[in-house]
Amino acid sequence: MMLVRAFVSHYRRHPFQLAALALMIVLATMLWTGVTVLTDQARNSLFQSEEAVAAGVHVVRTDGRPVRVEDFAELRMAGLCVAPWLEVRRPPPAGRVIGIDPLAMGCFGKAAPGGNRGELDGAPFLDISAAVRLAREGYDSRLYLLASTENETLPQGYALREFSLGPSTGELADSFLLNLDALSLLVLLITGLLVRSVHRLGIAQRQDSFDLLFRFGVPGRRVRQLLALELVVLTGVCVLPGLWLGTQLAAILGGGFGQALNSLFDVNLYAGAAESLPWQAAAVMVLLVLAVCLVDWLVPRRWQRAVSSARGRLLAVLVLFAGLAGVALAPDLAGVFAGTAVVFVAAGWLTPGLLALSAQKLSDGTDLDGSGPLTRWRRRELAVMFGHLALPVVALQFAMATVLAVQALVTTFESTFDDWLAQRLEAEFYVEVPAGADAGLAAERLQNLEGIGPWHRVTRGEAVISDEGAAGEDKTAVVDLFALTPVSELVVDWTLLASMERPWQRLAQGAVMVNEQLARRHQLELGDTLEFRVADTEMGANIVAVYADYGRPAGEILVSGSALPEDFSARFESFSVNPGEWAMAEISEQLADVWNVSDVTVRDNASIHALASQVFGQTFLLTRAISLLTLVLAAVALLIMSWVFFSTRAWYFRLLGIWGLPAGAIHHQLRRLSVTLTLAVTITAIPLGIWLTWVLVSRINPLAFGWSLPMDLYPLFWLELGLIAVVTGLVVAYLMRWQLVQRENGKQVKS
Amino acid sequence: MADPVLVVERLSKRFSSGGQPVTVLTDLSFNLAKGESLAVVGRSGSGKSTLLNLLCGLQVPDKGNITVTGESFSESVNSDSDARWTELRRRSIGVVFQQANLMPALSLEDNVRLRSHLAGHAAGHERGWLERLGIGAEADRYPDQVSGGQAQRAALAMVFAMAPAVILADEPTGSLDRNTADEVADCLFAMQRDSGCALVLATHDRELASRCDHLLDLSALHLGGTD
Ligand SMILES: Nc1ncnc2c1ncn2[C@@H]1O[C@H](COP(=O)(O)OP(=O)(O)OP(=O)(O)O)[C@@H](O)[C@H]1O
Ligand SMILES: [Mg+2]
To answer: Per its UniProt record, what Gene3D superfamilies does this chain match (chain B) (predicted)?
Structure first.
């Protein structure tokens, strides 16, 4: 009881210490929960619906047109077991929903998806009638016809396809989830470091009172038990608000996240059932906090000392190289992630010691003329700080490196994507061909317009290529087909990652180009002959170029429209037009006339660009937000830690004042000390950040998304980060100064 | 008195502790000449440390005047008096505490160097000072690598290296055992005599106090007595 009272009274005297630890736990839980909730949501979206479907196949029309209600009727009349599956897209945060017909599902002999969980509650499954109502409200919708897996004989004009909700993204979605998991692991790592550092410092501050208790005859084991209990209670209390904040964070970021999934993978974030608080995340957090705070009592002293010994350092260097080699050579994503984790651990192991050593070396080399002795003193203090603030320093380094890498990745992607989009949007206007209208007639009309600028007709559809890697008996894969008629001068500026001579002329003569994703996935090289099937026609052509195609995983073949077979039916058609001497209004009137419609949809370059940029902005919102939040958290932790640490150091700054150094000069020393600290951390973060950027663009991106990005560095952003470091340093200095003044006004000189 | 280095006139100081005013010093006056030493004694809480703080401008009196090497200060504070006190502490007033007089991150030699640098002296004589105090061999060690007595000798080396006019020592031997305390005190008095500076020594130790030229008993003052 006396012990408990001693504990409580400590915190009554130092409420700030308790608040700091509590704050750290709350914020850590918030970040971690936020990421976990989003990751789970993505995982569920990817798997839940697919799992729910007993049938793994659906029926498509061999002419490539979407299936309609008439097809359903036809198939049912032919005695087939098919069930409708109507997907309605609503914008986030409402999410997509799926309309099903429980009666029709019955023919699979299994309960309807969602049905076994009770009501069709709209998350994501609802009755098809309700879905149709939504579709009629104007939301985008798409109908699938699910079939049972048995090899049934289909009527003429239909084929079975594997049913998955997105296009065949292969392992890409898994990889994306792995990416998210990696991000959450990083968050866990950094927050673990932070919680530990704040807790350690609190313990160090209380060491005197523990010693006293020990002298009073309280066994050390008893004190430790109570400390553990205290931590359990505190964690238990703080995890709850953290959880709640985390779900709020996830809700805020959810919209952007849905967009990201959509534009990166064509995977949809379905309306998730409002689940209860993510207790699993909470449990992980509690375990993490307990583990990082209590590890000292579990790991033998000898090991702990070994970590910071010279031999420990050598080992860390070896570990570092092993990690670097692992990342460079690993054949799969999991290997790359493991290697990255190893590199981070080794870097965190080495950095504080290295920084302290350089500060020490620097102070040894200080020129003792001028203000030399004072400078030497400040550098020594810096070395001491690196030693004592090792954990928050490492956390800040990690957070900065992550922000740097994410920023570089996003910026590179943004500019590359922008260039790419600009090439794709070479024409000034785009005209969508209305459903059922004849694009051929329109092309003839455009051809006859004297003085029109360059234009071409874009036809999109599907092609089938053989795929030895495919699962199941069907060794084929469906890829996008992209046809241009004619191969106009609008496309000749495209970024080609690899090409033979005069690629566009060759394309016009019947050769093909493939996008990077397709080339990587099927190891296609220039000059290879690509065999593919369009509708019922087998085709084969030389690959003359590989072009960059960012932001989606699907493979694509680019052909000249003249090469398309007769029986090909387009999924989507449009015209890209530079009006030349004509006004666009006149051209669209002409087209309206050809198609016999009252109005045609014409979009201009600028509006498409704006739309794309908007989607893009959302795409990396999550990664950006999480990494920035982590940085903020690390900075806050550094503030807290320097504050507490400085309380043990304040006397020596006071001593300088007693020795006649004016207050202004002391504050100047404080500022230089803390700004050097944060800037030094930034400097160690930059190489780690650059390396992480390389890992992202050159290792993770190709493995996870199928396309790679150029490796660009953004020194301006380093400067920005440096500026943040300077500001953090100044705030630290200000806090220290405030503490110094408080002490001077309060307690008098030590005697 | 010839050449007064320190002149204290009608000095008063009180604190308010928990709303209650605590009078520590009332109308205290004394002079100290070059080369003289004054022992300040009194029971704990009688105001020894407070007096020393007032004498170097770390605290401000409620009333009274202090003159150090010709610079006068009254109870009024402003940035000018602040700056003058700072300058005095830098060059003319050496302060020694019971402990924690050294920068832990610097070696003894660097500590002496820093202190004499602040006092405006060129570098180069640090080792000499440490040797004079008998700790030349420890010059490269850090404060946590030497004994308490050695640390206090280093503190004295720092103070003498700045060639001060007055030394204010607050229980400089308070945390040392008898023998060590005597050795450190021997050093202090010997070097004070050599340098000719004035010394104000606050102590509990009557024996140490008796080695000074003058004695100021703050407990007696409180009881209404005078020196
Ligand atoms: N900042 C302050 N606020 C309130 N009271 C103070 C303050 N500083 C000192 N006092 C009080 O003034 C009195 C004198 O304190 P001082 O430290 O000068 O005593 P001292 O003679 O040095 O004692 P010791 O021998 O224990 O060091 C004490 O009663 C103390 O409580
Ligand atoms: Mg005292």
So the answer is: P-loop containing nucleotide triphosphate hydrolases
Residue of chain A minimizing CA distance to B87: A660
| Cβ distance of A660 and B171 shorter than 8 Å | no
The per-residue DSSP string of A363-413 comes to: HHT---STTHHHHHHHHHHHHHHHHHTHHHHHHHHHHHHHHHHHHHHHHHH
Which residues span the domain enclosing B151?
A: 4-220
CB of B22 shorter than 6 A to ligand 1: yes
pLDDT in tens, A121-154: 455 677 888 888 887 777 777 788 877 766 567 7
Domain locations in chain A?
1-53+168-297, 55-162, 425-606
Q: Nearest chain B Cα to A659, which residue?
A: B90
Q: How far is A358 from A386, CA to CA, in rounded Å?
A: 10
For ligand 1, atom 17: residue with the closest CA: B49
- From the CB of residue A451, how many other CB atoms can be counted at a distance below 10 Å? 8
CATH code for position B73: 3.40.50.300
Residues of A in contact with B83 (CB under 8 A): 662
Counting the structural domains of chain B, the total is 1
Smallest CA–CA distance from A366 into chain B, residue = B110
Q: pTM for the whole thing?
A: 0.74
Burial (CB count within 10 angstroms: exposed 0-12, middle 13-18, buried 19+), residue A497: middle
Out of A368, A384, A748, the one facing B105 most closely (by C-beta) is: A384
Lookup result for tokens 């045609």? A600
Angle A252-A256-A261 from CA coordinates, rounded to 5°: 130
Which string of DSSP letters, residue by residue, matches B4-39? EEEEEEEEEEEEEETTEEEEEEEEEEEEEETT-EEE
Which residues, including other chains, have CB under 8 Å from residue A197's CB and lie 6 or more apart? A389, A390, A391, A392, A395, A637, A641
3-class SS at A93? coil
Q: Which two tokens stand for residue A265?
A: 């993978």
Rounded to whole angstroms, how far apart are CA atoms A66 and A62?
A: 10
Residues of B in contact with A751 (CB under 8 A): 49, 97-98, 170-171
Task: Spell out which residues of chain B touch residue A372, defining contact as CB-CB under 8 Å.
Answer: 117, 123
C-alpha span between A319 and A308 (Å, rounded) = 14
H or E element at residue B200: strand B198-202
Tell me: the pLDDT tens digits for B139-172?
889 998 888 888 888 898 889 888 898 999 888 8
Angle between helices A663-694 and A372-388 (to 10 degrees): 50
Q: What is the mean pLDDT of residues B110-119?
A: 89
Q: Give the separation between CA A258 and CA A240, rounded to whole angstroms.
A: 26
Angle at A194 between CA A188 and CA A195, to 5 degrees: 85
